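Can't paste images in this forum, so I'm doing it all in text. The chain is below; anyone willing to post the predicted structure tokens underneath?
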Amino acid sequence: MIAKSNGNGEATTNGVPSRAGRSKIVNVSLRPCGHLYHYLTNLDLKRGTRVLVESETGTCLATVEIEPREPAPTMDLSQLKPIIRVADERDLRIEGDNRELERTTQLLCLQKIRDRGLEMKLVGVEYAPDARKAVFYFIAENRVDFRDLVRDLASALRVRIEMRQIGARDEAKLNAGISSCGRELCCSAWLRDFEAITLKMAREQNLALNPSRLAGMCGRLKCCLRFEYATYLELKRGLPAVGKTVECVKGSGKVVSLDILKQMVMIQRADDGTMVQATLDDLVEKRP
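Text version of the structure:
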């Protein structure tokens, strides 16, 4: 092994920053509210600082989301790349030029899609930092033969073309918008990664299974169904199940409904059939 210093003043072993060089770990995102990636650095970086990093698409701009910190002793640093440097005005100017190029390219692609009569919806365009490659994000219900479209775009733009099909949730994240709650969509405002959402989460929270109220702008189940799901499960563990017979100081009977957040149950008394509301403290015994 050969220990040396890289251009950032970091001690490296075979090109990888070593713990001896006191490199810290930092989390950056490549796009707003995007996935967080680990990098190494010994620079004093603050949240929001724009930096240059090496990604799968080449050298690109990223934003510091979690400031540098000491890595865990058990963390494998061998696969992590170092932050190249803090971005300067030239880097930011190039990024701005690429954003403008993406807007004009998107208009061109929309026209080509109409000319070809393709059953696909263009969502966005993203240029590589060196503007030698353009990625086109689209959604489609069925398989699309876009080979002719790629040839048209490559001929007009003189860059490498990549077509990438995405889902409805990704489309909502890219386009942003306002949800039915009156706030910006979680996926475009702060939610970095999508997780599975199921109807079971709505049932556990006693929500009406109304598709129009449970679906977000993407047409899929709202991501917010997951936010309180674990809390409802935890609170529900201490409550008797609906249909169970319980002993209660207000009168014994069967549980007919639950108020999970208030930790209360509605009991139909066995003696006269009347309904009484009881807390957990009112329950003296539960039996099957």
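The radius of gyration is 27 Å. The longest helix spans residues 89-116.
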